[in-house]
Design brief:
102 residues, mainly alpha, two-stranded parallel sheet
Length: 102
Amino acid sequence: MYKESRPLIQKTTDILGDTGYQGIQKIHTKSIIPHKRKRGLTLSKDEKKFNHALSSVRIAVEHVIGRLKRFKIIADRYRNRRKRFGLRFKLIAGIYNYELLA
């Protein structure tokens, strides 16, 4: 989906991805994804530490995505006008941000 949408991200911005973003380094050089275990081998202690540190940073993002999925706008197929998707998503993000302040 990232390849198809081609979001406007500056070359200097770091992208923290999960294992679903395999191959993103070919498109965006400053992307960071966790190390994967090769078949029959185990990860080194340094690789495990790196994966743990990366997941500790990404957990905040994953929690926000989980909260937004409760509104079903990104959990299910969006069946309304595509023009209004951005507006509705921003409204839902605004509601989420308002709940954070309360």
